[in-house]
Amino acid sequence: MDQTDKIFIAGHRGLAGSAITRNLEAAGFTNLLKRDRKELDLSNESAVAAFFEKEKPDVVVLAAARVGGIKANADYPVEFLLDNLRIQNNVISAAHANDVRKLLFLGSSCIYPKHAPQPIPESALLTGALEPTNDAYAIAKIAGIKLCQAYAAEYGENYISAMPTNLYGPGDNFDLLGSHVLPALLSKALEAKASGRREMVVWGTGQPRREFLHVDDMADACVFLLNNYDSPEIINVGYGDDISIRELAELICDVVGFDGELTFDATKPDGTPRKLLDVSKIATLGWRPKIPLREGIASTCEWYLQNNTPALAAR
Ligand code: GFB
User: Fold this and answer.
1) Between 3.40.50.2300, 3.90.25.10, 3.90.550.10, 3.40.140.10, what CATH number should domain 181-209+242-275+293-314 receive?
2) Pick the catalytic residue: 112, 137, 168, 239?
3) Contact yes or no for 102/158 (Cβ under 8 A)
4) 171 Rama sector, left if φ>0, alpha if ψ -120 to 50, beta otherwise
5) Which of 70, 108, 139, 244 to mutate to test the pocket of ligand 1 (most atoms within 8 A of CB)?
6) What's the pLDDT tens digit per position in 17-68?
7) pLDDT above 80: residue 315
8) From the CB of 206, is ligand 1 less than 6 Å away?
């Protein structure tokens, strides 16, 4: 990419899109196109078509999506399916209609079968049944991958698809009902410490294992792929190591300084038992993550205290 390329970052206010925007700005890219939801509704086909026709971006990063944790995914399958299909269909087809040179589609590690081999190679896609708590989101993301691959096969487009593992970092959603596990436990631990409680509730059994990648590492990988990867075959973007939810809760409590008891609410779903990506493909190309989990949790905690909860920060 050239630093003057016009790059449209769809979803520039979200966790992933804001990190990609920060990365590109720090690298000296000066022609970034950003539109918030009020300015451009990505689920509106004619609005997206008109925007592309007017702006004619050179490169598109498709980081806009309806996302959420295990509960939000299970409670709102219609919205996770429809909104994501609409957004990605509109953006990808408008990119083709307006001669976008390169497009990066962001998928998710939940596209892989529930009982995929661990670590999960890219070749595991569509080899088995999905995890039911997020199958609507996964089906939408798989449709996005297939649409990018179809444009590559039929029209020779350079549309690439990266599959990030569970992300966390500044700009995350910390709402307890909608969020992913890491921001949820961080917010619960801070709240328990601030209010002097001796107990913190963790959903499920604590036994599932998850891989966590700091969103700034993910952004670095995305820019690396935009510069160095030109294949329609999907590529995993992970940290390369995982921990159990119990271990994650203990680590977060340690970082926060909460020394009360953990209790496990087994009425809440565990989701998929394990989701560790095989990152050998991107490692062979020359990319590796840099931010260790403890360090990433500590800086995310700082960000949260400064941006979300003046009351907690003041205690
Ligand atoms: O991050 P998470 O919500 O989603 O939950 P997934 C991961 C694990 O953490 C599950 C447990 O085993 C949860 O039961 N957990 C423990 C909690 N305490 C909590 C809590 O307070 N909040 C939450 N949210 N979980 C998501 C998919 O799956 O992964 C998305 O739903 C997306 O579609 C994302 O693909 C990457 O890791 O299970």
Assistant:
1) 3.90.25.10
2) 137
3) yes
4) left
5) 70
6) 999 999 999 999 999 999 999 999 999 999 999 999 999 999 999 999 999 9
7) no
8) no
